[in-house]
Amino acid sequence: MSASYSVIPSAPVQKGATFQKPIQELVQSVTMDAPALMVMTDFREVTAHTTHPLETIESARLKMINRAVRLLLVVDEQNQILGLITSTDLTSEKPMQIIQTQGIRHTDVLVKDIMTPREKLETLCMDDVAKAKVGDVVATLKACGRQHALVAERQPDRSQIVRGLFSVSQLSRQLGTSVQTVEVARTFAEIGAELIR
Q1: What is the pTM for the complete model shown?
Q2: Between 186 and 22, where is the model more confident?
Q3: Of 101, 118, 147, 175, which residue is least crowded by CB atoms under 10 Å?
Q4: What is the arithmetic mean of pLDDT over 88-115?
Q5: Domain-by-domain residue ranges, the chain?
Q6: What percent of the chain has a predicted confidence (pLDDT) above 90?
Q7: What secondary structure does DSSP assign to the chain, as a single string?
């Protein structure tokens, strides 16, 4: 018995057509006792936004605005994570310090100049996050004084993949209250460097 197949009708792509983007449906309102996964941006459902180290910070800023995000992963050609850059980095003293020390214009400051490098990043383990509550995430962000926390999964070959992230702005929206964290220096060396300036 042979199957019969029909030709699917086609039509031209219309001017102004766009494309579907993944959308993660997050619960509108949560409590501190809700499962942490209810407030995690899951990269299985939402595309992680990225930039490259040799892009200008102005290009990174425009990407953040156009994509309505405050964090970009900095990746190489193989999509391996080199670091991250946040909207806070863009508005901090970092760009001015680079301008002064390197004698360049603001338009020449690159992502690699002000990003937080991979070596300084920490991740939360997906297994721990799966058992945690929203309140645990808030406590973690407050304890480390960060606006974001990356979540990673260990693969069968022991490699690591960033699975998602937590964001203070997302937490605040879903909790219906402002979550305050303060960026803090992580080591005495960082505190000393701040005092010397």
Answers
A1: 0.77
A2: 22
A3: 101
A4: 94
A5: 36-190
A6: 64
A7: ------PPP--PPPTT-----------S---TTSBGGGG-EETTTSPPPEE-TTSBHHHHHHHHHHHT-SEEEEE-TT--EEEEEEHHHHHSSHHHHHHHHHT--GGG-BHHHHSEEGGG--EEEHHHHHH-BHHHHHHHHHHHT-SEEEEEEE-TTS-EEEEEEEEHHHHHHHHTSPPP------SHHHHHHHHH-
